[in-house]
């Protein structure tokens, strides 16, 4: 029998949205894209992904967001 990943390695759509900083509808769009990893398992409630797969996908496919610089702070 295959070894189960630890619970903190499993993420659903809400956790993916938090990891990626996206809203519910954008998260669903990303999950539906061809490049997004397949779920580790599909349940009646939806897919469950490995956090490491999602983070690896994000590193490869998402642009870094620019950080906000306050006007009062030196550059």
What is the topological layout?
Blueprint: E1 10-11, H1 13-20, H2 24-32, E2 41-43, E3 46-50, H3 51-61
Antiparallel strand pairs: 1-3, 2-3
Helix pairs in contact: 1-2
What would you call the structural class? Answer: alpha+beta
The sequence of SSEs as H and E is EHHEEH
Shape: globular
Q: Segments where pLDDT lies below 50 for 5+ residues? A: none
Largest sheet: 3 strands, antiparallel
Oligomer: single chain
The number of strands is 3
SS strand fraction: 5-15%
- Residue-averaged pLDDT, rounded? 88
N→C terminal distance: 55 Å
Number of helices: 3
Strand line-up in the sheet with most strands: 1-3-2
How many whole angstroms does the radius of gyration measure?
A: 15 Å
Q: Kindly state the percentage of residues in helix.
A: 25-40%
In short:
The chain is of the alpha+beta class and 75 residues long. It contains three helices and three strands, in the order E-H-H-E-E-H. A three-stranded antiparallel sheet has the order 1-3-2.
Describe the structure.
- The chain is α+β, with helices and mostly antiparallel strands and 75 residues long.
- The protein contains 3 helices and 3 strands.
- Strands 1-3-2 form a 3-stranded antiparallel β-sheet.
- A hairpin with a 2-residue loop joins strand 2 and strand 3.
- The termini are far apart.
- 5% of the residues are buried.
List keywords for this structure.
75 residues; alpha+beta; three-stranded antiparallel beta sheet; 3 helices
